[in-house]
Design brief:
By secondary structure, the protein is α+β, with helices and mostly antiparallel strands. It has a single domain, classed as Glutaredoxin. Helix content is about 30%, strand content about 15%. The protein has five helices and six strands. Strands 4-3-5-6 form a four-stranded mixed β-sheet, with helices on one face. The chain starts with 7 loop residues before the first strand and ends with a helix. This is Glutathione peroxidase.
């Protein structure tokens, strides 16, 4: 795999979407869930999409059920939830694994480019760190996605420039996106 633009992902209808279709855009790739404490991030993601889409911004939403069974629905049910509750308009992909032997190539690539660097010192970050330590005391030692709403930021040239854990304030991510546009 040479570049982000060589990758593909399946949309919720089973169509192959090439990342090369997004060349020249600033992109957020995010693994999402409908029943998570971070699910309200959909509101902020949609706001970013509305604010920046016309300037060359895209969001690639990949629902994932690997974290505490928090995205149990079908692709159609997840899409309906997101559009009805958060009025999401950005592309939603087929539910997929982001870790383990069945992880889709998109997330294997992203994790290779930007590993886990911690949850930060904010209160939510401290809580997430403590929680994950109960599941795996060595959770910091690998690049795996740790929870729903991990976000990767790709610049206009296809470089993975940042990884944000779900504890990052969405307004901080929006500011970086705006600067890249």
């Amino acid at each position: 795999m040479n570049s982000f633009y060589d990758l593909t992902v399946e949309d919720s209808n089973g169509n192959e979407i090439r990342m090369s279709e997004f060349k020249g855009k600033v992109i957020l790739v995010v693994n999402t869930a409908t029943g998570c404490g971070f699910t309200p991030h959909y509101k902020d993601l949609e706001q970013m999409y509305e604010n920046f889409h016309e300037k060359g911004f895209e969001i690639i939403d990949v629902p994932c059920n690997q974290f505490d069974d928090q995205a149990p629905g079908t692709d159609a049910e997840i899409h309906e939830f997101c559009t009805m509750k958060y009025n999401t308009q950005f592309p939603q992909m087929k539910k997929a694994d982001v870790n383990g032997p069945n992880a889709i190539p998109l997330f294997k690539y992203l994790k290779e480019k930007k590993g886990f660097e911690g949850f930060g010192k904010n209160p939510r970050g401290v809580v997430m760190s403590a929680f994950l330590k109960t599941l795996d005391k060595n959770y910091k030692d690998n690049p795996d996605i740790k929870w729903n709403f991990t976000i990767f930021l790709i610049d206009r040239s296809g470089e993975v420039v940042a990884r944000y854990e779900p504890t990052e304030k969405m307004e901080n991510i929006a500011k970086v996106v705006e600067d890249l546009l």
